[in-house]
Write a structure and sequence with these properties.
The protein is of the alpha/beta class. The protein has 9 helices and 4 strands, in the order H-H-E-H-E-H-E-H-H-E-H-H-H. Strands 1-2-3-4 form a 4-stranded parallel β-sheet. Helix 4 links the parallel strand 2 and strand 3. Helix 5 crosses helix 6.
């Protein structure tokens, strides 16, 4: 049988999630999670889950802190996992004066300061690098002060590399509420 992209797109998310739960039941996987799910989607999904997502991989960095979503995930035992934790080439997070000063105060690189900031928030980070030296540097962790954690909130500009749909449109797309032929979940 051959599948097309539209075959995959037309599968309601809860059908996919139930298949992932069944896979977890087999013991072939230890944990299942989601990516780019906002709070509205999670609020609708969690009551229907037998197994709550272990992680929600989302864009998290000082310029896009998503504190409300991070807190929601943690309240529901979902580990927030940051992709683009350093912002990436179009968002120069490591050039931010606050994190440069923080790095200087802790005698580390701005990247180490930013990664440690997210770790201190209880967020798992997935930094991307092909440079072996940078990969090794990324393992160094510092402990930001309470003041640094508090002041870092001022860096949040809600700037993103990936731009999701508004919550309502995202809900319609994920749960197929815009298609009469798809059963509502």
């Amino acid at each position: 049988m051959t599948f097309t992209a539209s075959d995959i797109e037309d599968v309601p998310i809860m059908d996919t999630w139930r298949a992932m739960e069944a896979l977890a039941d087999t013991g072939k996987v230890r944990a299942i999670g989601v990516s780019n799910f906002n709070q509205a989607i999670l609020e609708k999904m969690i009551p229907q889950c037998r197994i709550v997502p272990a992680v929600n991989q989302i864009e998290l960095h000082p310029f896009n802190q998503q504190t409300k979503l991070v807190n929601f995930c943690k309240q529901h035992s979902i580990t927030p996992t940051a992709y683009c934790p350093l912002g990436g080439s179009d968002l120069s997070v490591i050039e931010d004066p606050f994190f440069k000063r923080m790095a200087e105060a802790h005698m580390c690189t701005p990247s180490q300061a930013v990664l440690s900031w997210n770790l201190a928030r209880g967020v798992v980070v997935i930094p991307k690098s092909t440079n072996p030296q940078r990969l090794k540097q990324n393992l160094h962790r510092i402990t930001p002060t309470n003041d640094e954690m508090r002041l870092s909130a001022k860096c949040d500009k809600q700037e993103r590399r990936c731009h999701p749909l508004p919550d309502v449109k995202e809900l319609e797309w994920v749960f197929h509420e815009d298609k009469a032929t798809c059963p509502l979940i």
